[in-house]
Amino acid sequence: MIRVTENLRKIRDLLAKAAVDAGRDPASVRLLAVSKKKPVSLILEAAAAGQHDFGENFVQEGLEKIAQAGREDLQWHFIGHLQSNKTRAVAEQFHWVHTVDRLKTAQRLSRQRPASMGALNICLQVNIDSEPGKSGSSEDDLPQLARQVATLPGLRLRGLMCLPAQHDSFEAQREPFARLRAHAASLRAEGIDVDTLSMGMSHDYRAAIFEGSTMVRIGTAIFGER
Ligand SMILES: *Cc1c(COP(=O)(O)O)cnc(C)c1O
Q: What's the start-to-end Cα distance of the chain, in Å?
């Protein structure tokens, strides 16, 4: 039996403590509950406990859960790899996409976003450890990609996202997050107004919060092992 309500309370306390330890306002860190491979019943339990933002990795699974949950008040974040032939449904159903790493995908999302829904919130995924085969823009390509995405009418460029290689030590965990934060600062310095750093998961949220994360993506600590 997974105790979602209790897990949420615990993780909120831990996030708030990490923020205070980092000298930050706990309200500046938003919790994204990653519900991939978990049933809608647990999502609704989390929603009843005040959770508002949910992250899904797979288009079809996410669409089914959005429909089944039937809750206009929840915000749905797409955080998986997005193939360009699946952009339409994401543009029509989700509120955020955290994993844009190519202009072509961004252009499709922008074109396919219904005007009535307002701009789709976008984070650019950066392959921050230059891992072969991993999704994400290279650090070198990021500034140009950001400039181009920022001009697309159906999108609102909100910030950057990364999924670093696993490290056990706190200091090693901080290093890639610090680089992502520096990239966001460079974009702001050239007038691209990003406000979001989507970084940190169940095992490294503390390091991410110390480096300025504004949105942590937590699955296991809320919903249990997958
Ligand atoms: C699954 C996933 C998470 C959540 O990971 P946990 O370790 O379960 O907290 C966060 N971000 C992305 C992109 C994921 O795919």
A: 13
Residue 190 class from Cβ within 10 Å (0-12 exposed, 13-18 middle, 19+ buried)? Answer: exposed
- What is the total count of domains within the chain? 1
Ligand 1 centroid – CA 22 distance (Å): 22
Nearest CA to ligand 1 atom 7: 202
Q: Supply the residue whose CA is at minimum distance from atom 5 of ligand 1.
A: 219
Beta strands in 35-188 (DSSP E): 53-56, 75-78, 96-100, 120-126, 155-162
Domain that holds residue 56: 4-223
Contact 102, 66 (CB under 8 A): no
The pLDDT tens digits for 6-56 are: 999 999 999 999 999 999 999 999 999 999 999 999 999 999 999 999 999
Tell me the best of 7, 10, 58, 79 to mutate to test the pocket of ligand 1, counting ligand atoms within 8 Å of each CB and taking the most: 79
Model confidence, pTM: 0.97
For atom 11 of ligand 1, the residue with the nearest CA is 217
Domain harbouring 137, CATH code: 3.20.20.10
